[in-house]
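Title: [Solved] Undecaprenyl-diphosphatase 3D structure

Original question kept below for reference.
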Amino acid sequence: MPEQSIISALVLGIIEGLTEFIPVSSTAHVLLAGHFLGFESPGNTFAVLIQLGAILAILLVYFRKLWEIAMALPTSGKARRFVLTVLLAFLPAAVIGALAHDFIKTILFETPMLICIVLILGGFVLLAVDRMAIRPKYTDIMDYPPSLAFKIGLFQCLAMVPGTSRSGATIVGSLLMGTDKRSAAEFSFFLAMPTMLGAFTLDLYKNRDLIRFDDGIVIAIGFIAAFVMALVVVRSLLDFVSSRGYAPFAWWRIAVGTAGLVGLLIFG
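Solution (posted by the thread starter after getting help):
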């Protein structure tokens, strides 16, 4: 296995873990970095499969809360309603993602210029929403009504376009509909669990014939790096957005998108 592939996989795994749960689009970062590193993955499987590391990281961080919810299901209507809200929010992306999977992977994922433009536009949207003086009506994810969750799920579908950001779309949708910044980020964590696991499973099935032994080693390296970095991010993000908001991520998106456009224009 080329040493360059190992180094690239490590770098991309670190990028995946650092960006998966913040509103900057991990897919855009991984695809753009892979483009400039000359990293090739049949069917773009690497970008999705290393997300399993980030999934396991968030499951580990939230294991206790997930266990408490699971144990409360037989007796607590609040726990059952919360599970329903997450499933309702997941439903739109599950349907659209399954139907449009091939178009997303073969067309949208292969258009770096589009990714950069969406990064920049999404940055300005996030900046504008972060500055809005919206008085929150919902501050606890356990109190989100099912109708609100479904609407957040519709926003999540915007992330089918690489560069939009799954967490960014759900957070913007949540804030516009009256949630506070902290609970918006936390709900995006819970929504990420079924969404990312579903994407991982579908992509693994669709590309099972393209994955070779050497690919497995590269994916494992990226997976471990993504797992470690995602642990750090998930443990610190809620406190960060509570005190700093989302403006730093908005400016980061704009900077990365601009740098990507410049790089594409110069290097192709």
